Recover the amino acids of this structure.
């Protein structure tokens, strides 16, 4: 049975190969006709008295015959969307997770205030939110120190909607921004 199955598969697999048309021919052009359209780079040798790197001059491409239209570019300032105005809040609500016990703790901090959370000391620098949509997001500038270490573990902006974008890296604790306190 295995032999007849193998013969049957061989005939089925060989049939489509015999019915195929030949592949189209590919024409390969030498590089020499294209050489004139490439930019020319001239490197000058290093002058020992100058003590700097060699100067590189790049000759721009000449407009090749049959080339397509040249694209017009506009400065980035004209096309970039304007960032929404941010309002400064007096404080922020942070949430901490102790990974060992699984306990969640909410911390209400005012700007410039510090709070202790386990081994950590968390200081809120500032909390901002979009002025046109206050409930949409919160951005808090935090400095987080382990009281047992010399340098801060984290210093920077945390974003409530994307906590993993700029997160605290600690083996036991997670801290993230929930929202700004606006009143």
């Amino acid at each position: 049975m295995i032999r007849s199955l193998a013969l049957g598969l061989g005939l089925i697999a060989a049939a489509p190969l015999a019915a195929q048309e030949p592949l189209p021919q590919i024409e390969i052009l030498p590089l020499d006709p294209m050489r004139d359209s490439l930019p020319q780079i001239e490197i000058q040798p290093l002058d020992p008295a100058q003590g700097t790197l060699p100067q590189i001059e790049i000759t721009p491409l000449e407009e090749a015959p049959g080339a397509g239209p040249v694209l017009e570019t506009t400065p980035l300032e004209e096309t970039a969307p304007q960032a929404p105005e941010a309002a400064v809040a007096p404080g922020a609500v942070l949430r901490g997770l102790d990974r060992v016990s699984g306990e969640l703790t909410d911390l209400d901090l005012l700007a410039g205030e510090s709070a202790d959370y386990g081994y950590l000391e968390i200081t809120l620098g500032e909390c901002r939110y979009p002025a046109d949509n206050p409930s949409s997001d919160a951005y808090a500038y935090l400095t987080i120190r382990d009281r047992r270490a010399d340098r801060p573990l984290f210093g920077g902006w945390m974003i409530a909607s994307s906590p993993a974008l700029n997160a605290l890296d600690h083996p036991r604790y997670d801290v993230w921004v929930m929202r700004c306190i606006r009143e």
Summary: The mean pLDDT is 78. The CA atoms of residues 96 and 117 lie 8 Å apart.
